[in-house]
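hey can u check if this looks right to u? its 146 residues, i copy pasted from the old doc so theres a chance i mangled smth
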Amino acid sequence: MTASRWRVEAAQKNREAARAEFFPDVSINALIGVQSVDLGKLLEYRSRVPSATAAIHLPIFDGGRLKARYRSSQAAIDEAVAGYQDTLVSAARDVATQATSRAQIAAQRTQRLIEVEAADRLKSSAAARVRQGVTDSRTELAATES
């Protein structure tokens, strides 16, 4: 169940990444270094070499690809949510089945206890009739077998 929830969260993160691709991207890089042929002049002011670059990405012509990727990520979320819901329903079904089985076992146990008590009473009654001389010992033997 936890893995299913993680799949949903991962699919949501992928959708957020796909949505972020619709926005322009601006990158600025800067570098300052030193350069010299003579090692003694390496740390002088004239040996420095600055560099700066900028890049802009505008997703103007990628609209169809971006929309397809976003829809695909949304479909992945829908699939992950459906899997999560199936997992939850299956777990609930298992719990209900176990609860029903437990109730059935408890009912069977109660029924068996009632049957044992009835058999004990029948045996005691048959033994009392034999002791009083009302019947012969076959009745007691039959009660013992059941």
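The mean pLDDT is 88.
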